[in-house]
Amino acid sequence: MENLDRRNLFAVFSALAAAGLAGSAGAAEPTLSQSKVLRYADLPVRKFANGSEQRRVLIGTLPTGEFLEVHETLMPAGETPHPPHKHPNSEMLFIQTGAVEYIDETGKHIPVGPGDIVFTASNQMHGLVNTGSTPATYIVVSVSTQLPEG
């Protein structure tokens, strides 16, 4: 995973699409039952007040019943996406660039960087902060059997 850059990770997502796990990007909670290729340049960009940007890759329910949400975030130096929190979905974060700290359920700050993968189990407190001097990018894969939060 050490050599898995953004381009290669999106190739992985394209492979998932070919396997039938992908659906329509940006649509409101569709059933992800149609395979397709998702072009990075076509992903809509959401901008946030703290300067972060998010590209939603997938959102919806798989035919097997799991809710899946995938997005890429660009987080400016010194910023955090939100305060530590917990939710019913499990998450994997694929750190692409930058120096960030993962805040685990005990409040411990764990340095992570490019190539590292963070797993957060369901209902565990967690957070993230960009401790570097440059923007950080990471991809979030969120899975749940519950409906997404509003």
UniProtKB/TrEMBL annotation:
Domain called Cupin type-2: residue spans: 74-141
Keyword terms of this UniProt record: Metal-binding, Signal
Pfam families to which the protein is assigned, alphabetical: Cupin_2
Gene3D superfamilies: Jelly Rolls
Protein name per its UniProtKB record: Cupin type-2 domain-containing protein
PANTHER family: CUPIN TYPE-2 DOMAIN-CONTAINING PROTEIN (PTHR35848:SF6), OXALATE-BINDING PROTEIN (PTHR35848)
Signal peptide boundaries: 1-27
Domain of life from the UniProt record: Bacteria
